Amino acid sequence: xxxxxxxxxxxxxxxxxxxxxxxxxxxxxxxxxxxxxxxxxxxxxxxxxxxxxxxxxxxxxxxxxxxxxxxxxxxxxxxxxxxxxxxxxxxxxxxxxxxxxxxxxxxxxxxxxxxxxxxxxxxxxxxxxxxxxxxxxxxxxxxxxxxxxxxxxxxxxxxxxxxxxxxxxxxxxxxxxxxxxxxxxxxxxxxxxxxxxxxxxxxxxxxxxxxxxxxxxxxxxxxxxxxxxxxxxxxxxxxxxxxxxxxxxxxxxxxxxxxxxxxxxxxxxxxxxxxxxxxxxxxxxxxxxxxxxxxxxxxxxxxxxxxxxxxxxxxxxxxxxxxxxxxxxxxxxxxxxxxxxxxxxxxxxxxxxxxxxxxxxxxxxxxxxxxxxxxxxxxxxxxxxxxxxxxxxxxxxxxxxxxxxxxxxxxxxxxxxxxxxxxxxxxxxxxxxxxxxxxxxxxxxxxxxxxxxxxxxxxxxxxxxxxxxxxxxxxxxxxxxxxxxxxxxxxxxxxxxxxxxxxxxxxxxxxxxxxxxxxxxxxxxxxxxxxxxxxxxxxxxxxxxxxxxxxxxxxxxxxxxxxxxxxxxxxxxxxxxxxxxxxxxxxxxxxxxxxxxxxxxxxxxxxxxxxxxxxxxxxxxxxxxxxxxxxxxxxxxxxxxxxxxxxxxxxxxxxxxxxxxxxxx
Amino acid sequence: xxxxxxxxxxxxxxxxxxxxxxxxxxxxxxxxxxxxxxxxxxxxxxxxxxxxxxxxxxxxxxxxxxxxxxxxxxxxxxxxxxxxxxxxxxxxxxxxxxxxxxxxxxxxxxxxxxxxxxxxxxxxxxxxxxxxxxxxxxxxxxxxxxxxxxxxxxxxxxxxxxxxxxxxxxxxxxxxxxxxxxxxxxxxxxxxxxxxxxxxxxxxxxxxxxxxxxxxxxxxxxxxxxxxxxxxxxxxxxxxxxxxxxxxxxxxxxxxxxxxxxxxxxxxxxxxxxxxxxxxxxxxxxxxxxxxxxxxxxxxxxxxxxxxxxxxxxxxxxxxxxxxxxxxxxxxxxxxxxxxxxxxxxxxxxxxxxxxxxxxxxxxxxxxxxxxxxxxxxxxxxxxxxxxxxxxxxxxxxxxxxxxxxxxxxxxxxxxxxxxxxxxxxxxxxxxxxxxxxxxxxxxxxxxxxxxxxxxxxxxxxxxxxxxxxxxxxxxxxxxxxxxxxxxxxxxxxxxxxxxxxxxxxxxxxxxxxxxxxxxxxxxxxxxxxxxxxxxxxxxxxxxxxxxxxxxxxxxxxxxxxxxxxxxxxxxxxxxxxxxxxxxxxxxxxxxxxxxxxxxxxxxxxxxxxxxxxxxxxxxxxxxxxxxxxxxxxxxxxxxxxxxxxxxxxxxxxxxxxxxxxxxx
Lengths: 665, 665
Ligand SMILES: Cc1cc2nc3c(=O)[nH]c(=O)nc-3n(C[C@H](O)[C@H](O)[C@H](O)COP(=O)(O)OP(=O)(O)OC[C@H]3O[C@@H](n4cnc5c(N)ncnc54)[C@H](O)[C@@H]3O)c2cc1C
Ligand SMILES: Cc1cc2nc3c(=O)[nH]c(=O)nc-3n(C[C@H](O)[C@H](O)[C@H](O)COP(=O)(O)OP(=O)(O)OC[C@H]3O[C@@H](n4cnc5c(N)ncnc54)[C@H](O)[C@@H]3O)c2cc1C
Ligand SMILES: [Ca+2]
Hints:
- Two copies of one chain form a homodimer.
- Chain A has helices spanning 5-12, 17-25, 28-42, 57-77, 82-92, 97-112, 115-127, 277-308, 327-362, 369-397, 409-416, 426-444, 460-465, 479-502, 507-513, 515-537, 547-565, 567-572, 578-595, 599-604, 610-613, 624-633, 646-654, and strands at 132-135, 151-155, 160-164, 172-173, 184-193, 196-206, 219-223, 239-243, 246-249, 258-260, 266-268.
- With 665 residues, chain A is α+β, with helices and mostly antiparallel strands.
- The first copy, chain A, is globular, with a radius of gyration of 28 Å.
- Chain A starts with a helix and ends in an 11-residue tail after the last helix.
- Chains A and B meet through helix 4, helix 9, helix 10, helix 12 and helix 16 of A and helix 3, helix 4, helix 9, helix 10 and helix 12 of B.
- The structure holds flavin-adenine dinucleotide (2 copies) and calcium ion (CA).
């Protein structure tokens, strides 16, 4: 019997896949958890997802409600832990109101409520006797949170806040879970008391009756309509919300940071606002982990299919060439494979960063906050942009068949791409990084040493002076060389921006004029962090036959593919010569050759089940064509050999029996 | 009364928009045609399209059949010309079987059928008493047409071809209009006679009964399933097709180029195969025109919304900053605006190229074919890739609201992006350009002068020797400087590839090893062509107040944004210094400032109606928020205040009344 392409690929792999799975998941226990919960979901017919792309919006949404209820009953009856429950929800693999309830509503209460408030609301939320969402964005304001228009005016005569939507643009717009499901919402509104506007604060509000689910009096709430793509966020009821002078008790203001007295005096609690930043680091860490997860799924599909797909180059009855053997295919695909690994190690490091920040906050040490804030903002931005583009690239790498939903990639993209927008527009985030970089440079003069991920800027003089030392291809295979290259690129772009801004009429005008250049510098800073974290991670011991070797190859592929992709940056700053760039390209090609026999095993190591991938092209067994064909025949469109609509709209055309209308031109 | 943002924008425009519309459309008559047919479609309720994103696949498809029938009855009753009919179909703005019938089936008969065959089949096709499609691609072979597996074996005993699908991978897969509608198909199959395989030929075959539309005996035909995105190609019945030894008369072979005698002898007709290349140029010209059309629609939406959208920078009650005023926004948006114009002029030039090629072919002059073939292949590739990416970029430029289907951009992307794959995978096309470039260089030695778009390579010595002469920002505003820069970039990258390949062990190995670099060189060659055609077009007279000035600004924006985006190419070849690159960036920023007050008027000049745009964000009146809000309330999801599924799946959760299943972990 002939061996399938993928079997052959797996035989040629040079490392221990099971050991790599443990590296990817973090521990043998995590591998088991994935296996266990993954199978639970895959084997439950309620969680079927292959039919969702042919469903209309209403059917799709209703089915998501069904899945969420079913998941909740499983979680309760099996007494799953929080970690297990969250794994279960993520394997169901579609956006749902529960994401916001568990991921934003509850954390907001924890982070912004007093102990009393937590005791009041959390038990209800944990049991889901109330369901909540996070209502910040308005029709007119997303990025500019300080510009939100909803008001909450304290009325001392009744001891209540009056929450109001004064304009059309003040309508809450986008919150997930809001449109059709949530009974409660964390509402951001301008706190006004004693005639003074204290800016945006968080309130907890009931919006629907707990008896019949109707919106409460004075509340308009609805779904905002269809969103991008197949499935995707169409399983979610992103909503709109308006208040017509709705009254809520004073203590519905979440009061960890500030409260209002019975007589309307605004009183800061003394708890520093900065405490909230820990939550932001946590969210961004999760986003980076998600990026590595989504990218790894797309790459799994594209790598496996590229090994199955053959095109051109038949020689005397021998099979054609596997498209994964084309250099153009490799140079688009392998860097993405390496990036998935890079982001995983980055995510692990961000978990450490989160605990470090939390420990510092607890002892009142806010010193690392600006650096951590900038670093995590930038990492959110570059990882989500790269992942979104990477998913589409993987789809294109699958040729025509990638455009079929059967490839799994259209749904993956639709569900992922808004990550470039929510939790901060990716360009605006890079501009925040740029502000930090400019500030850091300006403080260098006064002797303030930058720390953490910005420490290298303290070394700017050397980085500006010393050019790349590479003389031959193999010289690139060196962490010190790469570290220096990425530091020099970032430092040089940053210093150049600072110089240009300094020459402008004023600081703000200069910042605005050179903001595209600043974005480039910020990207350089962030990519340096990713490269550094990947190289650092490989300094620790990692077990398993040849696992370390594969990871090193991936790490160099990641770094060198960035060097060639950002060649302009390295050249314009005079750091690299054209010759050195050619050496980098040559070395990268050698690395592709090393990676090639291990490519399929490296995606197997992500341990994604066929159910989770939801892709005929990415099947573990590589049996692509038979399954494409059989699944097509089962499509609802093929329920009968003659299509619905034939009698009304096709036969009359063919038989020249169309009724001609009386249109006028 | 306050003036709306867009009214204000239109007042500040500095040129004659009506005159620009004529430039864009090509003539006043074309402007009128657009107006006339555009309104006809917009005012006809059958052509409503705002509901298609919430429909399931079956409903969506049936509705497309309805539109196609309705359009056909209008075309007949109003006796529309071919040009009017095709405009009508394009304004209906969704892929349908008619695209293939009129765009591929009929042209294939014209191009590959003998006069007799044309007389037999064309009248039927013109009246749509038969409906046809174009069945080339198979499950296992798309790019590699020569590898198709379907066979057509001549049987002299009955004077018939026996058409057969010998394997699973030989199943026809993808042809539009095939799955549910077509009665006939142009089928590509290997012609076998006298025991010899003569390679792939085109046959015309009936696949469904003209009486009851059932597939004919021995024919399996079906839809291949759901495709990427909202709407998009889901209105199309891309299909699969298998033959179980189906017999067709000998003269169903399209015989323009070759025929088979009654006794099975294969006889080339003497008509050169090259004649078919004219059709290819025509198709690629249309693709480039489509690119400019799609990109212009996306840019219209993003420009208008960016002028309406305000975020940050409130000062004492004054409105916030229009996001179009942010430099990062401009530097992503304005180059795309310029590109839409660039592609329009390119398309016009390709129309000329098409007639030139046809005239040559008629007099047996095949000398320009290789150059034209490479040039059009490359232009198809870069314009479709840039347009697809550009649509997504426009969507992201609209922030969160761009992700709503109400922005119109998700549908635009879904319908457009397969253009990167069909009519040739974009990477494979660039590799074809690369082969031509390598060939051209290799012939230089033997004194063969390259012509047409490759003529500059005859000048390679100078282009390699002379670096950029720019000394100050304004120097960049010079067609000669730009021409030289783009020629030098392309020539240098091409020569470098040739040198690298020459050093390889053998030609093919070298070509494969350096194929990524070859793709870069090909892209440079094609971008040079676009820049050149844009600059050439502006050498002719163009009337209308300040219209020429605007076009010049756009042309420079196009060229300089490419210089900065491809900085690596220009730097690595030593052609540009870092300083000169900075000057280019500085000049580009000045151009953005010139463009800014005209941006809205420049998209108004595309003359897209609100119906055609199908975008709340891109409305002509700029009344974005009110319409987003009102449309959302009309969404089927909001038919009742309490969602379907509440009783079954939400209430039991809230009330702790879920039935717990007996799941096992
Ligand atoms: C799927 C999805 C789910 C969401 N879920 C929630 C939720 O649960 N709760 C919630 O409250 N919100 C939610 N949101 C809203 C989301 O947080 C916002 O859409 C996001 O913050 C972006 O803001 P915006 O839409 O206002 O973009 P805008 O700020 O309007 O951006 C438009 C353009 O302007 C540019 N721009 C704006 N300001 C500047 C500047 N200062 N400098 C340079 N450029 C600028 C941007 O780069 C962008 O190109 C969701 C959004 C989506 C898409
Ligand atoms: C919406 C849509 C409509 C279509 N309509 C029709 C139709 O009406 N009729 C019809 O006959 N067909 C149709 N097609 C099919 C279409 O023509 C093919 O999908 C297209 O030609 C690409 O071929 P492929 O899918 O085999 O890609 P593949 O060749 O399988 O490409 C897969 C990957 O391999 C790479 N690759 C392949 N060969 C090489 C090489 N030699 N060197 C380097 N890289 C290589 C590609 O770059 C790509 O990344 C349609 C397709 C789509 C998506
Ligand atoms: Ca300047």
